Amino acid sequence: MPDATPVRRSSLRQQIADALRDEVLTGRLQAGRHFTVKEIAELYGVSATPVREALVDLAAQGLLDLEQHRGFQVRRFTYDEFRSMVAARIFVAEGIFRRVTERGPIDMDPAAIASVRRRAESAARAARAGELDILIGHDLRFWREIMALAGNAHVGEFLDRLRTHTWIYTVPLLRRERSLAGVCWSDHSELAAAVADRDAVAARRIVEAYDDHALALVDKLARS
What we know:
The protein is mostly helical. The protein has helices spanning 12-25, 37-44, 48-60, 79-102, 110-129, 132-148, 153-175, 188-196, 200-223; strands at 34-35, 64-67, 71-74. The protein has a 3-stranded antiparallel sheet. It is globular.
C-alpha cells in the first residue's frame, strides 16, 4: 500500500483518483493488489464516499477491476494485451498525425507547438537519464498535447487510455533493470519537430520506430 500523502478537503474524489492513478502508473501500487474502500479511506483519513467514487472512476478507466464482495484489484495486463494495445495505438496515431499535419497555419497555435517542444525536451532528458517516474509524467503529457493539436478530444482520450495501460504493463518490467539510462524511447523532440513542420511522413516514420522499440524492449525485458 502506498504511503499516505495529505489530501485537501476540496475535490477529494479527483485528488484521491489522481493520487492512486500515479501509484498504479509508477508501479508502487502493483498489479494484482487487492484493497477495499475502507483501507483507502483510512489511509487518506477521509470518508468512504469520495474514495468509492474515485475507485469507480479508476475502474471505468480500466486501471482497477471491481471484485464482487472483495473490493478492488489493480488491473493485470497480459503480454498479448500489451501487443494488442500497441497495435491499436498505431492505428489511432496514424489518423491523429494525418489530422495534425494537414491543419492549416491558423489552426496550428504557435504557443501550443512551443509547449509541445518544451514537453518533448523534458521527456527526452528523463528518458536518457533513466528517471522513470519523471519520464512517465512528461511522456503522457507530451502525447496529450500532441493529441490536442488534432482537435478531437474523443480520439485523444482513447489514445491516452491506451498509452496509460501500456505504461502500466511495462513499468514493472523496467523496474527490474539496474539502470534505465538510455533504455526508453527518447525521440520526443524529433516527433515534435515533424509535427511543427507538418511532415506527416516523418511523423509516421518516427512513431512506427517508437512502437517497434516498445515491442522489442518488452520482449527483451520479459525474457530477462
